Amino acid sequence: MTHARSERAALCDLLDQLGPDAPTLCEGWKTADLAAHLVLRERRPDAAGGIALKPLAGYTASVQEGLKAKHPYPELVDLVRTPGGVYGLLPFLDDAVNTLEYFVHHEDVRRAQPEWEPRELPADLEQIMWKRVASGSRLMLRRSPVGVVLHRLGGGVTLGGARQGPKVEVTGRAGELVLFCFGRQEHARVELTGDADAVARLKDARLGM
Questions:
Q1: What is the mean pLDDT of the chain?
Q2: Do 98 and 181 lie in a common domain?
Q3: 7 lies in the same domain as 100
Q4: Confidence band (pLDDT; 50, 70, 90) for 47?
Q5: In angstroms, what CA-CA distances link 170 with 51, 162, 199?
């Protein structure tokens, strides 16, 4: 099983366990909202544009609500469990695109629950995540108001954020750096080093794709 499929299955198991009204780290979303988002992302390409483009966000939100109304929660989770659309037809694309997507959303649910702890990730998954961080740090940190130096525990350094001005060093395991760069700064287990004001600005910045 690929890491994308493994994270997808683990997320769906957790969604089934928690039910539709559990909190997530996605602002304003409960577990049912997150499940509907993932169904929309894969099975309603006509509405997926609003995930990234604000002018289309209203239509995307209405379709997401429609999916919640149409499908009982267990059915929504079952739709998430099986890759849909192009990801169902091209497993290599599912692995390339969805490994980080499902890892992050799995942690969105895990870390919104009480007494969570970081998972020990397989070494090859950590390596994959570091490669994605190293290649995508400029994009994911493009809105950072300060420079960012990412240090991976176990080896590796990459840069992002503002090219001028103060810099903040962010140190952690690759999975934690992924969460940080995807905008989950408050819940990523990382160490931040630098000027206090720069650190505060980075913590509040809107990061991610």
A1: 94
A2: no
A3: yes
A4: confident
A5: 27, 14, 10
